[in-house]
Here is the input.
Amino acid sequence: MRMPGGARANVVRRLLGVVLLALTVGCAGETSRTPPTGAPPLASSGAASAAIHTGFSAPTGLAFAPDGTLYVSNWSGGTVERVTPDGARSTFAEVSAPAGLALDTKGNLYVASYSGDTVYRISPAGRRQEFATGFHTPTGIGFDSRGNLLVCNRASNEIMRVAPDGTVSRVAGGLSTPVGVAEDAGGTIFVANYTGGTLSRIGRDGRVTTHSDDFDGLGVGLVVGRDNRLYATDRAAGAIKRVDQDGRAVAVMSGLGSPVALGVNAAGTIYTATWDDGALYQVPA
Here is the structure.
């Protein structure tokens, strides 16, 4: 992702670290044999434990299919990886700078191309087509309860809505470099802002307010758990935080190296992926 000021240099160093890790293990595609849906829970202390999968290249988005298949966007590698429930891993698609991922009810995968200003739709068989274009460095994406796709327009500080037929409209503007988006069960839209480290909420009238500022620096990862509470990646703090209704954010996992991606499977188990070591971890319940 493009980042301002000194943060860009930090990202370059982190990406170099991922490359070095890949060279160390022998190849960037190496994974563990433990499938993500069957992985044992991490220690209750919330500290980072052993990685479930490694060798990703700046993983930015995660999406789980109902059968437990996991999709991971390799932002710097230009690919979307697929990990099946038995742990087998393969390249599912090639996309320029893939960021956010989302799956619809038919099993189609949606991929935000950060550098291409496009959201692609990829069928379960791997057929890719443009779903919507004309964005401004789209990052996090996610479906609302009506089947519309919400898209973070990072460069223009907007949240956009794409109807199932591909029609694009604006939900809200005036955000602070939005990178993650999610809607809760009540229909409220939440947005992770890269600049300022704040979590915003968008009411049904489009009004934007600050929901939480208990973050050092948010990443793309923002999901609603089975308890209808938000979970967000505090990239700068190396933590995954649960956000309560009053906006208070509490770390449920710490000691991570720049967590950016976040996803939740059908059972409600949350996973994160980190840029520093290009790895996937299970988040403690």
Notes: The mean pLDDT is 86.
